[in-house]
Amino acid sequence: MKKKIASSLILVLAFLLVLVGCGSGDQNQSEDNANKETPKETEAVSGASQTSYTPYDELKDNYDIIIIGGGGAGMTAALEAKDKGMNPVIFEKMPVAGGNTLKSSSGMNASETKFQKEQGIQDSNDLFYEETLKGGKGTNDKDMLRYFVDHSASAIDWLDSKGIQLNNITITGGMNEKRTHRPEDGSAVGQYLVSGLVRNVQEQGIPLFVNANVTEITEKDGKVNGVKVTFNQKDEKVITADAVIVASGGFGANMDLISEVRPDLKGLVTTNQEGSTGDGIKMIEQLGGTTVDMDQIQVHPTVQQEKSYLIGEAVRGEGAILVSSEGKRFTNELNTRDNVTAAINKLPEKSAYLVFDSGVKSRAKAIQQYEKMGFVIQGDSIEALAKEMGVPADQLKTTLDTWNSAVKDKKDAEFGRTTAMDNDLSGAPYYAIKIGPGIHYTMGGVVINTNTEVLNKDGKPIPGLFAAGEVTGGLHGQNRIGGNSVAEIVIFGYQAGIKATEFVKAQ
């Protein structure tokens, strides 16, 4: 027991040292971590310490299940497969585990959870379903969506059973109920989730190899039977298994592919970590898998442009507003991400400011990281803040006065905002962060069913091949709701671990 406590404390301390000592280790945003001059070094220190990973001399030639990708979906799948008696292995191509999960900011959406019930939040799976379907413009895969919402509460319970408690609940754009679950202290979810999953992976003795780039998924007699993996960019090995789970993430950092499917997005910054290049999609296509919605790429409205760093939706969820360079509000800040992005792009400068007060800062703990990175402008009064922002002071004061009256009356006559109006913006000092849109999430990917089986062009499962997370497509339709990606990786990562295990046991 003492050893477990000690190892957990070491891991937590490693994360804290990273956050303090490395400007772009990302507190967990879905943001491009950033210091573009040294991306590999940045990513290498943005997760658990490298000493925590499995040494190469422990590599075996065969495992029950190979998992490609050491992010949230991959580690969740591995833990569930291990719990079911399997001998899984995780191959992560980057120097650290975590992937884009490490950058996740707002939280994890779930409905009818025990934490909602404890806090008197009335929610339903049906409402979660309808709001997500509306957010995706009705184009979501309805079977996948139904499974997703109906298993969201049990995913929260599963995390809780692993010592990963998400009991602080807020709201994100496109939702009408508080269902975005965060760590108890209100901090961003990503590093907390990754550290918890890594801790569990270590405690369960699951091998997790980093700098392990899977280049090909192999098959024999029409069934997947392993992978080719290159270690440290030089040593290629062929590793066999009875099943493979692909959890390698999306392609938000592959600007060539993005420019091919969405030429209009060329030149935008990306919030994605550099490993998000769509490798898993390409390998699955080579096996006959098919894709959906590849041109559906989400642009996040609030990204700090110089460091491509996502400013989490929870800042708006805790009461912040958006103002233009004229000091005026111009949209419902908690509309869906595509609509907020469109509103910013209509401004002449295609950028805006998040404006908030000390109350929002106390509730959205991620702001502490934004301050460390130099993103936050501060003023002891509204007039002082306006001067720092370079916007008209009288107009900014009018904007805040109007907003505070709207909060008091619970009616936003200007833009019809109805959520995150529990607190006004009257607590000095005042703050602002300059933001603009950035490429954030790829809704498209490979086609799977609710069993996480990868389907071919005839809609038939490819034997032994499973996938979960951002590498897949269809669930989100044309627009992802903030908080749904973390839910997706846990819900379908868990399912992939179960279904891959069932496949192996049936062989």
From TrEMBL:
Protein origin, superkingdom: Bacteria
Signal peptide: 1-23
Record domain FAD-dependent oxidoreductase 2 FAD-binding: where: 64-486
Residue stretches of biased makeup (Basic and acidic residues): 33-43
Cofactors named for this entry: FAD
Key words of the record: FAD, Flavoprotein, Oxidoreductase, Signal
Single GO term (MF): steroid dehydrogenase activity, acting on the CH-CH group of donors
Disordered, as annotated region: 27-53
Protein family (similarity comment): Belongs to the FAD-dependent oxidoreductase 2 family. FRD/SDH subfamily.
Official protein name in the record: Flavocytochrome c
Taxonomic path: Bacteria, Bacillati, Bacillota, Bacilli, Bacillales
